[in-house]
Amino acid sequence: MKQFINAKQDMVTEAIDGTIAASGGTLTRLDGYPHIRVVLRADWDKSKVALVSGGGSGHEPAHAGFVGEGMLTAAVCGDVFASPSVDAVLAAILAVTGPAGCLLIVKNYTGDRLNFGLAAERARAFGHKVSVVIVDDDIALPDLPQARGLAGTLFVHKIAGAMAASGANLDACTIAAKRVIASTRSIGLSLDTCSVPGSLKEDRIPPGMAELGLGIHGEAGVEQVASAGAVDAIAKVTDKLSVDMPRTPHVVLINNLGGASCLEMAILTDSLLSSDFGQYIRLVVGPSAMMTALDMHGFSISLCELADGDEKFLKEASNVLAWPGCRSVSSPAVLPLPDGLTPIRAPASAHEPTKAFLTNCCTVLIAAEGDLNLLDAKSGDGDTGSTLAGASRALITAMDTLPLADHTQLYRAIGLELSQTMGGSSGVLLAIFFAAAGDASSSGQTMRDALIAGLDRMRQIGGANPGDRTMVDALLPALQALNDGLPAAAMAARKGAEYTATLTSAKAGRASYINADQLEGHIDPGAEAVARLFEHLAK
């Protein structure tokens, strides 16, 4: 089992109970499990217009996560990706509706329209004032007569909810909801489908591809497109959103479909707001998981044209669990580094052979990125290749600012560059290595002896020694053999790297947390990087 669930039939009720238990007393529910699953405000007194929404589960935190003061009054929860029953919707309406009436906010799916619609008719027969709006913000299929309801629904929850909280009547809330729906457009893109509990996963998206315009229930998208990073993904989405879009201020909602990391979502946000499309965005909601499709590795963008008063309603505080807030988009004022941290660099000097040598070394490490990451994934966190490649790219970019004609200053400059551009402990250790090599070189030591002095300092501070299963196992013998030429150094480095595959315990680095079975037979990625570098230089 690759999901943290118990019995499939209890998933929704257990999720509701967990949400309510962690709400701090703001949420409660109706009786009637398992057929009636309605989450509602614990403080509701029926004095104002009630807002009810819901649908199938699997979109958490929607819809129960948006129940609270300033948004929904109640949420009706169906089975995973299945509409709740008419009785469940009716129970919610009857539980929360007072003289001011009730607004039903329904996403445009057949089951939801039918069940919410019939429940509304039955509630009216009881004498209640009930209004219904249908959200159809999906623009993936522009010619579809019945567009789907996606995360743009949350704009309706927030604006109509804020209006209801301020005392607006049912007609005013309904008119505003319909206006927001007409002004909202959404589309999603995903690298993978979702895993529905109890069902086989449909692996229809090949590696290297993404699906554009897919639904929040795992429905196939409009087309499969090449996946080429965050900027490209945002461009594909905004190309669709910008068709016939008014060139006026908008609010954007950046929604995690469930499986994208927070890091990815922040990168997507930066790509969106820094794009040409970003000039039309005044307010931003997210990035956050708001209306998900279980664990789908994707995102959706919802855009709504701002009308007078919308900004106030969007920014008003809401006492709900899942609304991340709405904020203005602004450019930060970048502050200078504190005194003492601005680097003092040696004057740049040109030396083409040295530049070619360093560029060649960096190119080797960049080319090895994927292989080193795979090795590191067996004994660490899978980023050694990316860390070395990133530092190499930064060094190539900074090449013309380095004192290439003065090797003593060059060692120190490389150390300084790595301390700023190379993450993790590797960056610190290599910065120490090159700084100490620069000190040794300034005292007249040869290049080999200076590098060995740098390694000694790195070992002293970092605590790694031969046999500890680190890059030291390849680097030390290579430097010791350097007087016999690069081929001898390359052979020594390769022998040291292969030796690390026989070591079943590590005494330094992340591999020290890994058990013997996972280490045996796998070369340490840092040692492999050293071996590849010397082997390339020996050719």
UniProtKB/TrEMBL annotation:
UniProt GO MF annotations: ATP binding; glycerone kinase activity
Keywords: ATP-binding, Kinase, Nucleotide-binding, Transferase
Domain of life: Bacteria
Positions of the DhaL domain: 352-539
Matches recorded under SMART domains: Dak2
EC class of the enzyme, as a word: transferase
EC number in record: 2.7.1.29
Residue stretches making up the DhaK domain: 7-323
Gene Ontology biological-process entries: glycerol catabolic process
A cellular component annotation (GO) from this entry: cytosol
One Pfam family, short name: Dak2
Name the UniProt record assigns to this protein: Dihydroxyacetone kinase
